[in-house]
Specification:
mainly beta, 2 domains, 6% helix, elongated, five-stranded antiparallel β-sheet, six-stranded antiparallel β-sheet
Length: 267
Amino acid sequence: MLLLAGCSGGGTHGAGAITAPPIASIVMKASDNQFVKVVSDENEDAGTLVLLGVVAFDTVKDVVKQWEAGNKDPLLIITQTIDGRKMDSVFRVTAQRTLQVSMNGKFIEDISPGEITITVQPHTDSTIVVSDADADERVYRQGSMSLHASSLFSGSHAHANLDTGKDDNVSPQDAELAYTWATGRVVAVNGTTVSQWNDQGEPTLDGCEALPADFWGTGLIPGGGYLRTGTAFCVHTSTGRYGAIVKTGSMIMDDITYVIWKKPGDP
């Protein structure tokens, strides 16, 4: 199954990636000897797919190379035969969600990093659907919170609970994230565990659930070092819910953006 992600890999992510709402499916039609066009897109952000242009088939590699030199957004390239010539419609994918692409009901499997090319057979009508790979995720809570090193002395913003969304005057026994006196750094506590996300794209519910048990721990600082802004983690809270957090502050582990997904039994 093709997965197109609107953010780069390597474990650094935009804060909006994990809290971006699911997108509605985008339907495209490629008719015989006519360029592909979008026929259904009910997303409020009409820029999920942006047509960059139509180019000759033998020049598209140069176009892709030039694009990738200065851009991180992946490309969707649809190859058609128009008036006897192979032509490519090049779309930019801007959604901060992991997307999947199918043609005539079959998911596309052949991909290259940062791009996918779909070839429409001549003299055929084809339907291409771009959909959200994680549309079944149900958000329990999302937002942002702050934990500050200076709060070790006051108790305010020294502890946070992701399930409740509270980060102010949370008691140590109710905390899921906390600064520690020993290191002055953030750790997961009271049965909450975390795992740094290093795959391409944003953390997903399915992806976090699939992580092996030995990938999980309590530390959010790898190897005693510092976290870059955009570092992402899967989290498993003390109440059994999965979620994801992204570091957004400039200090060791200061401000974070988070999303917690519903578990079975949640309304």
